[in-house]
Amino acid sequence: MKPVFFVTGTDTGAGKTVLTALLTRFLRKHGVNVAALKPICSGGRNDAHALHAALNGALSLDEINPWHFRLPVAPLLAARCERKRVKLSQVVACVRAVQNRFDMVLIEGAGGLLSPLGENFDSRDLITALRAQPLVVCPNRLGAVNQVLLTLEALPAGIIKRTRIVLMSPQKPDVSTATNAGLLSEFFDTKRIFLLRWLGNRIEPARVLNDPHAGRVFEAIRQA
Known about the structure:
Layout: E1 4-9, H1 16-29, E2 34-37, E3 40-42, H2 46-55, H3 61-64, E4 67-69, H4 75-81, H5 88-99, E5 104-112, E6 116-118, E7 121-122, H6 123-130, E8 133-139, H7 144-154, H8 157-160, E9 164-168, H9 180-184, E10 193-196, H10 205-209, H11 212-223
Helix pairs in contact: 1-2, 5-6
């Protein structure tokens, strides 16, 4: 089956969109026929627009983001406020339809792993239903180890073995920024822990993709 990667985070604002969009551009640059989806979002479609730009027309905005709601709260509540319902089976069917057209699919979740996406399901349920490989994104700062371990604890045992962890460096590192990956390696396979250094307040994709460090990280994530 064609691979599906699910980008989730330890919280909202962890860097999921940045990673998904840059990884999409990197894969396309290297000839991979990849799709990037943000199936559900609330509080605006900025994340979906970023993926749309990264795909350069390979999918329409509505294909990337079929369900979007105005209120900036958990998607489940935002949908209910508009008297709408989103079911797991609908989202899975949408992803599978796109999967048939591409060699790889990247999916960005909304919020953290257990943030309710729709009626009786969250990102964990979607990962399980799609047999996806999780990419857990976390800001590389004090508290990261606890946040990552809690997220891993919430994943089914069989899925943890396929998980990758990406620590996103902050503009101003703290003492833990240099030690979090090492400490996490005592609990998780060090080959599946990746560090992405600070990319700037305004990310320029072309510059990032020409950065040897970023390129090595993206390729390692792909191959892990």
